[in-house]
Amino acid sequence: IFCEEQGDYSALVRVIGRVFSSADSLMKSFRKNEPSSANETTDQTAPQLESTGAAPVDAAALPDEFNKFDLCDLNIDLESVRRVYDRLLTNDQAQTALVNALVFLTPNMELDLDYLDVYEANPDYLNIFLIVMENSNLHSPEYLEVALPQFCKAMSKLPVAALARLARLWSVYGLEHIRRIMETFQQVITFTILSNEYDAENLVNEDETVVTATQCLKVVFYASILGGEVDTEHNEEEGDEDEDLDELSLHELLGEDRLYKKRPLLDPLEKELGVRTIDCIKPLIPFEDFVNESINDVVEMDKDFTFFKVNAESKFSFQSCPFILSVITKNQGLYYDNRIRMYSERRLTALYSMVQGQQPNPYLKLKVRRDHIIDDALVRLEMICMENPSDLKKQLFVEFEGEQGVDEGGVSKEFFLLVLEEIFNLDIGMFTYDKDTKLFWFNSSSLENEAQYTLVGIVMGLAIYNNCILDVHFPMVVYRKLMGKKGTFLDLSDSHPVLHQSLKQLLDYTDNVEEDMALTFQISQTDLFGNPVLYDLKEEGDQIPVTNENRQEFVDLYTEYILNKSVERQFKAFKKGFQMVTNESPLKYLFRPEEVELLICGSRKLDFEALEKATEYDGGYSRESEIIKYFWEIVHSFGEEQKRLFLQFTTGTDRAPVGGLGKLKMIITKNGSDTDRLPTSHTCFNALLLPEYASKEKLKERLLKAITYAKGFGML
């Protein structure tokens, strides 16, 4: 106010310089119920920062969510900080002074943290970071060029305990503030990448600004998780995995021990906070908002993979911050991991063969009969699991008995299609099917042994390992359970929507539950033959009525039974098979459950424009052929359901691979001149055999009939 009246802001600029350029002064500023250090460090003629109207805020005035963590951790007056910034940022001279002060402050902070252990000596040092990040103008160009990159470098020097404390404090700030902090770090990353050029020689991994800003963004990521809905309980039991000493010694012999050592991929910050990404039901900020497209465009995943697996101590890998990578980019990293493991298994096989004088077998070879595909696959895979489970890490090579052909991916895809079609046949009774949700679930009364379910798990693991999309329809809870979480009431909405609605109505019921509903802690299920089977959720459950007081317990026990206990035998075998293939993979570390589903089943988002651009032609057709132009006009005119039927008919699944339909290499081949025959397809090669029909109308009629009625007819 004094400066405004005088029209001279030099005194204010001096105050800002003294406070905001000094770590000691800033650390002691804006204390709750204490005089601001601005009052102590300025002379009598200079205006005081607190004259802007900032006043101490009582803890009771803070939002309820601040009670999640110890308020003793928050010893600065946030409202005071924000009001000061609101006033200062309206004045250009004050803004310039803030930028200059931060430029001067941050190198000293970096030195303090590197050599003096200042945080350990005084935890209030964290106040500096809290105060600086309250500046709502940090995203402006004057900060992005020098001040903010230096600040990120200083923040990355904080010990893990300090970063965890920062994440906890930010988690209770509320959505608006935490989103602004997230966007600030994102802009540092994007601005830096767009201002530079990167290639195989000049890696983005070696850009200190990008790396440190990504590490800072990780703190915001975990703050978003802590600030959302979290379930750190309901965890599946993890079995102990014994290390294969012979295999390890061979890897050491080949100089690959660092690449294949079994080590838990646990982020230090995650460990310090005691919360994992998988524990998050709903984050404060959607996971997708943390993905930075600029990084995904320039990161060299082959080099990044090497840093992740071999040079983690000396080189930075963006896979150590998987939240910033898209599924497509992470899938590239997984591809390198899978291929290198396949190559390693070949080397081990060659070494064994030299020692033992046997013929080398570098592939996972499965020779099966079409009419006994489950039995043959089961017997072969069981033998492999007993004799040498590491063979599952080899590249899959399928051969159908009595048929010639080299498996270059197409035969394996056909094998997967046929196995799944038989396994999910309702007559077998391994799975139940919900016609409304179009999803399968484990049949709790199945007569099949565990080996059949283990086979399903192995097949799903092999599909990821061999980069093959499967036509599998499970609810999301299956993937959550595979990643280590038990099914909960929320999962019922996806897997058993009718039951979920009934139980929700029970919880919301306002009248007398015991009198009006007459429920007990005994439930009834239907077995394989349609007969009712009674199950007590508690001992002598039939004698315990469900009341308003115990209905939550009833719902929890009912959910636990349906999603976990009743299918424990089947799911345990299924998970065992899946982990036989993926146990050493970074899959669990890099991907969330919904992303694992995407890897296995593909995406439901269909971009047929991208498919048209990626399609190749053979047998006399080209992009300019009249019938091809007619064909795409017809396909683009299809409704959503017809497009899915077309995709199912042509590729064997109604979903797109990771990266979209543009990654699908479809081939349209000429199959003779005008005829009444329907189009046919080789689903294992994504090939459509299309006769050259005489008119657009006939083409549309024949194509619609083929995709609608011809499943199993003309499909190879």
From TrEMBL:
Its EC number is 2.3.2.26. SUPFAM superfamilies: Hect, E3 ligase catalytic domain (SSF56204). GO terms for biological process: animal organ development; nuclear receptor-mediated steroid hormone signaling pathway; positive regulation of macromolecule metabolic process; protein polyubiquitination; regulation of circadian rhythm; regulation of primary metabolic process; rhythmic process; system development. One of its GO terms (cellular component) is proteasome complex. It catalyses: S-ubiquitinyl-[E2 ubiquitin-conjugating enzyme]-L-cysteine + [acceptor protein]-L-lysine = [E2 ubiquitin-conjugating enzyme]-L-cysteine + N(6)-ubiquitinyl-[acceptor protein]-L-lysine. The active site is at C684. Residues 388-716 form the HECT domain. Transmembrane segments: none annotated. Residues 31-50 are annotated as: Disordered. Keywords: Biological rhythms, Cytoplasm, Metal-binding, Nucleus, Phosphoprotein, Proteasome, Transferase, Ubl conjugation pathway, Zinc, Zinc-finger. InterPro entries: E3A/B/C-like, HECT_dom, Hect_E3_ubiquitin_ligase. Its main location: cytoplasm. It is found in: Cytoplasm; Nucleus. It comes from the Eukaryota. GO terms for molecular function: ubiquitin protein ligase activity; zinc ion binding. Residues 35-50 have a biased composition (Polar residues). This is Ubiquitin-protein ligase E3A. It comes from Cynoglossus semilaevis (Tongue sole).
